[in-house]
Amino acid sequence: MKISFWSVGKAHEPYVKAGIEDFSKRINNYFKLDWEIIAPLKNAAKMSIDDIRKNEGELILSKIQKDDFLIALDERGTQLSSEGLAQQIQLCANNSSKRVIFLIGGAFGIHEAVWNRANFKWSLSKLVFPHQLVRLILAEQVYRACTILKNEKYHHQ
Description:
Strand content: 15-25%
Order of helices and strands: EHEHEHEHEH
Number of helices: 5
Strand order of the largest sheet: 2-1-4-3-5
Helix content: 40-55%
Low-confidence stretches: none
Shape: globular
Radius of gyration: 15 Å
Structural class: alpha/beta
Largest sheet: 5 strands, parallel
């Protein structure tokens, strides 16, 4: 199974880059991982929020394959414990998912078409975080889930 982290926005900022790279390297010991940073729309300043969401949504949907398992990170989603995330990842592996995509939407959230396509909607918190920090939290939590699945010492209950 391959894991893909997709994020709409700019490249990793230096203040989180080292952490993201460290946890990404660790995840690669369990699953093949890649990052796709989807550049913000060029004419966004001239567009309405709905148009931005729609155009980002169309771009995202054009990249998703039929068999991909899409996990959309959104404040409206279901909150999980670290063990719950591990169970979700294990479920994907048990169902022979070839690629699991964790999607961090743009500044204005994800379009309804992407929301509807998502196989699972996950909320990290009721709080709103900067996208850069969400990337770091996502990488750390997926790594933590991997160690839980392997009964390793990283996660303490």
